[in-house]
Amino acid sequence: MHSELQQDRAVKVRNTYQQGEGRKLRWVFVLLTGFWTILAIVLAELNYRHAYSTSLEVAQASARDTFARDSVYRRWAAAQGGLYVPVTPKTPPNPYLSHLPNRDISASCGQELTLVNPAYMTRQVQEMGREEYGLRGRITSLKPLRSENAPDEWETKALSALQKGETEASSIETLDDELYFRFMRPLVTEEGCLKCHAEQGFMLGDIQGGISVSVPWEPFRNSLRTLQRTDLFTYGAIWFFGFLGLLIAGQRINLHLSERRQAEESLKASLKEKEMLLREVHHRVKNNLAVISALLNMQRQTVEDPVGSTALKDLDGRIKAIALVHERLYSKGSLAEIDFQDYLDTLLRELSASLGIQSDIRCVARAQDILLGIDVAVPCGMIVNELVTNAFKYAFPGNNPRAGAQHKEISVSLHEDDKGYMLVVADNGVGMPGEIDLQSTRSYGLRIARMIAAHQLRGAIDLDRSNGTRFVITFDSSTKEA
């Protein structure tokens, strides 16, 4: 009797314990499911924000390019004192130049010509750009000569900000019931501008107005909507399979607990087996979290630490240099070799853009008719990435070339002869300090370039400081077959 009571008590204790463990497992399942759901939503949101930020950067780059184009040919026309063109219905004599005695002239052939000032020319070109490409641009001012150039509400605020010292203004605004990325930079009074604007009181260096550029936002919004739908499917699938894994794991645990209850094993054996199962669950969760950690690192775009931000940016450049090789392999239809001239042109352009280089540094690539396999193109691209990045950062302090140089230039060339290849990365900057030893430098970029040249290309790298900085990497033609 006493034995039966002990057995009944043991059974009740086991049942109570198992029920308690069952409730705990259900709570763990609920918590893990909630954590997994929140994580999927956060990752999708981070991906969307990154895409949105990228769209803004692309729109801003397009607006800056448009401004730069308009500004350059406007300055050129101002330097020439304006241009004479035939009088047409679209280009009648400018009434705002009526005070000039030579506004209208006759050509030797008898054709009537009229003077077109830079602002008139810019306005006509901007109208053509709007008709053909959808880009809206115009010159505006708080003190316009032409009433049609009076600013709207957004332009008035932007001009006021420019007058206070801002270098540019931009935002997404509604214009004629459509969304546009609006951008403005100032127009500074130069010598050629005084011909038309001196009577307004403008002096050299004054901000007389700005060029307003409006890029249609609808294509970007459509792309973001497509991304949202893709993210919904992708992260929804990831969430579903993760949830399914948790569900299967939970079912397996519950099944095993049922089998243990039916077998009425001892509490110690049951606890031991439970511990083994929990270790299995923790092992699987740990693996899932490792995958999640990798996804989080991929989503990480910004950090507060400047050193860390620079390191991530440099790493991004190296990854892009490798990715560009694959892009060229597939985009050009050949899976064996890439046109290295085309690769260098694109790489130099993307490096300049990613580093925010807005000076007049000229980048020259010389690798005509050079075809490289991926085993050679990748290390060459990595070396070019490191050395050109260093040149952009350090070769031209104060944005000036070395003494005697007519302009700032960074050149990359690859030549092939009977002896092998010679890759040259050079600049006409201030030159690398003499105390820097290429073989023992602490510069991470130079160490990478040296190691890649030695170990991947099985070649040598030399440094010439006689005229700026010139790196010469030589390697055998057999590397190409290897």
TrEMBL record:
Gene Ontology MF, one: protein histidine kinase activity
Keywords noted in UniProt: ATP-binding, Kinase, Membrane, Nucleotide-binding, Phosphoprotein, Transferase, Transmembrane, Transmembrane helix
A Pfam match: HisKA_2
Domain Histidine kinase/HSP90-like ATPase per the UniProt entry, residue ranges: 375-479
Transmembrane segments: 27-46, 232-250
InterPro entries: HATPase_C_sf, HATPase_dom, Sig_transdc_His_kin_sub2_dim/P, Tll0287-like_dom
Superkingdom of this protein's organism: Bacteria
The protein's Enzyme Commission number: 2.7.13.3
Keyword Ubl conjugation: no
Reaction(s) the record says it catalyses: ATP + protein L-histidine = ADP + protein N-phospho-L-histidine
Name under which the protein is recorded: histidine kinase
Lineage, highest ranks first: Bacteria, Pseudomonadati, Thermodesulfobacteriota, Desulfovibrionia, Desulfovibrionales
